[in-house]
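Good morning N.,

You mentioned wanting to compare the apo and holo forms, so I went ahead and generated the holo version with guanine. This is what I fed in:
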Amino acid sequence: MDTPTLLTGQILTFNGDPFVDPWAECVHIDSAGAVLVEGAHIAATGSADTLKRLHPQAKIISYGDHLICPGFVDAHTHYPQTAMIASWGKRLIDWLNTYTFPEEIRFADRDYADDIAARYLDLTAANGTTTMASFATIHPHSVDALFSAAQARGQCVVTGKTCMDRNAPDGLRDTAQSAYDDSKALIARWQGKGRAQYAITPRFSPTSTPAQLDAMGALWAEHPDCLMQTHLSEQTDEIEWVHSLFPQARDYLDTYEAHGLLGARGLYGHSIHLTPREVDQLAEVQGRVIHCPTSNAFIGSGALNLPALAARRIPLGLATDTGGGSSFSMLRTMAAAYEAAQHHGHAMHAAQLMWLATAGSAHALHLGDQIGSLKAGHYADLAVLDLRSTAAIAQRANRSGSVWEDVFATVMMGDDRAVHATWISGKCVNG
Ligand code: GUN
Ligand code: ZN
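and this is what came out, ligand included:
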């Protein structure tokens, strides 16, 4: 057994959902705390003095007054869009056709997929992100590329082959049958192997025929332990298109529901323009709404009223949606979530934002018993944040009256410079 390591600093812990109970009862910062890491896991968290006394043999790494928090969990992203992030001037469907699909065609080359997977995991680790739910491309080896790169780093990643059998260019279409067969083979190869989590991945209903959605629904019924990820109600033009493609559907969600693709292990990215029936259904089955605020602003999709969905007890995750999202940073994403909620008259607290980016997203991915909190038994996936990472943030922190004011300044103004270190499976991978 390796010698245990004791990381000391300010530590962020949760004992409740700050969208259900007052945030101050649910989220705590211990200014003289510590996390004891043994192997890949957290063995204990608590006061630094106590843990030093109880574990005199532990190697101590002092992070001073940096904030040690759970590694960020990005609940919806597209690793294949890494190289075309920040592409100018289009709205959703044009943006997909102009920038996204041509880039995804390049993943026919396995070496390219491996290069981008490694680049993506480096960039996200530099931003303190330790787990993500990523779409791959239609190429099964694009799934192998990300899972293999993650496995080599001891990292928990959710991904799946993106399925599209219409409204996509040559080279990016499969069929209902091949999507089923390829996804099933990938599930057999990866699901539950090490830290790999497979998500059945119909991209969105415009790019799947009803026959393909049926095949995905059947596959999910055969593998109910898998997640299912897709897009829902992102842009108003897209919603109109869905109505014309599925004239019998009651609404966008119904295009999934009617094919067995609505459930608690379903991750519904964006979900901005929901009808009351869609909200009721998601609340009823506990389908996960994944908020992608930088993407929603960048592509001009709209501002999700997240606090209103939280009030309905719909489980929520937070996500970059790289490369529709304009950043790899979950700090930047929290800032955008704050700004989107302000459009609806809600000021989310920094404690709620930090919870969304960690424990909330982990719960959305059904991984809340393994990651997302600094708890004994969880994986030692951590981010260490410097709360004075730039001159602009430091001068604001000098004026602050509480650690939460410091955290809020870093949430609103921080980026990868605020990420002093990232730990995955008990190993420091950055910093
Ligand atoms: N809807 C379908 N595919 C995509 C995608 O790649 N990005 C975004 N933002 N929305 C989508
Ligand atoms: Zn997306």
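The pocket of zinc ion (ligand 2) is lined by residues 76, 78, 231, 269, 321, 324 (CB under 6 Å).

Happy to go through it together on a call whenever suits you.

Best,
F.
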